[in-house]
Fold each of these.
Amino acid sequence: MNALILVDLQNDFLPGGALAVPEGDAVISVANALMPDFDLVVATQDWHPADHGSFAANHPGHSEYQQIDLNGLPQTLWPVHCVQNTGGALFAPGLNTAGIDRVFPKGMNPEIDSYSGFFDNGKRQSTGMAEWLREQEVETLTVLGLATDYCVKFTVLDALAENFAVNLQLEGCRGVNLQPGDVDAAVEEMRAAGAKILT
Ligand code: VGL
Ligand code: ZN
């Protein structure tokens, strides 16, 4: 079985959103076009409580995009984004959500961030996605979404560590590039870890 993994195709990551990824809207049509080619389509959804520790607003004296230590892990402080039950957390309006078989929310624990769709950043808790994919007898994952240098990267690296074969659909990805070159470095890291890069 082949599964398509759609990473965080949510309003806050699109132009005009709270944590807009440049050209993030360009990947929606890529996602819609690929869905019919897969046995299963899975979406991850960044789904934070308002008091989440990754939000700069919850750390007085700190600013957005600063790095801090959050309960023992390095944490980039982000603008408030993808708060549960707000419009910014909804899937992109153009996304064919009827084609999605299963959604895995992540980032609900205010004490720790969760870039990957599989585990939190400390690999302490599983979302259940790996177990579910194995139950469906999925062996190969094709991953696309936002953002290449954060949630896509960590989802791909965890998928490889969980022994799935992974294709990265680059045309369906856009990144943040907080530092110039971050996206290229992320793609190289995924390739070196065993992902097949599709362009
Ligand atoms: C993401 C930063 C914070 C992502 C999520 O989807 O890549 N990035 N939360
Ligand atoms: Zn987030």
Amino acid sequence: MEDKIISVAIDGPAAAGKSTVAKKVAKLLGFTYIDTGAMYRAVTYAVIKRGLDPKDERQSETVLPGLKIDLLPDGRVICNGDDVTTVIREPLVSGNVSYIASFKNIRLALVDMQREMAKCRSVVMDGRDIGTYVLPEADVKIYQIASVETRAVRRYEENLAKGIPTTLKEVEEDVRTRDRIDSGRAFAPLKPAPDSVLIDTSFMSVDQAVDAVLAVIKEKTGVTPQC
Ligand code: CDP
């Protein structure tokens, strides 16, 4: 196979299983996985850590100068030298991240970083605006959905496994609220790109969802896992 750089965009609502699927697809194809949600979460944590109000645009933007976010190949997220991998999944961050993600200057700064990451390598990038805004020329665009009930149960179980204390009700509320804010914001809102392929994973196992994404990638680019 030639060395063409391929980009795969996976967008969709909260807790639709995008990162689980994207990670596996990237590994199977030897592409780099980029979790753009982790970047918005890292900024949210940086704002909270400095004692600033994450609902206040002016205050929140002050974390941008010098901001450094590293997504390591082993999945760790480093922000300004701190390992924030675990803390960015906490309810305090989840409950504020959609406000931070609605601020234009914060989005522009992170989008620059995301485009830079996808410049010289093949990527699977997941988020809300990858196919519509970050990589509008992506070779493959997937819009991954599942019912809100399914998504809430999946995220609740993930939290349990990570030792993050939440109730199913809280998680469902968080998912609904974030979807509302993410879809309703003025700049680069959550919505399917017109040329995206819709995959509903409500009744799919992780492996079935991975196979469905791989089938679209094969159809659009001819690329398949090597073994
Ligand atoms: O994993 P989950 O679906 O819960 O969310 P995430 O991918 O970690 O993203 C967290 C939040 O970041 C989302 O609810 C959005 O507010 C924001 N986000 C965004 O606005 N644009 C992206 N490309 C990725 C995430």
